Amino acid sequence: MAGLFATRRDLDAWAVALGVSNDDDASGELHKLMGRLLDGQDRIRTTARSLSKAPNEDVRRSLATALGRLDLAVFAVGEALRDFAVHERG
Description:
mainly alpha, about 90 residues, single chain
């Protein structure tokens, strides 16, 4: 995760992971990824609400775990987007 003190290397690693070669394209890909992650959160929350009274504790626990992991991914992608927005690169 890059964070508030992203280095050129951090941002370059994001760009490589996203399959792009410049900051604008990396930001664009991160925005697309963020949209998919937020859609996933909505879907899991909807499913979790409908299964909240399911008799199977394992299902409820798995949904909670999935949502927690998506929350972490949303945080990481959000941090990367902020880093690209504020980092001056030559």
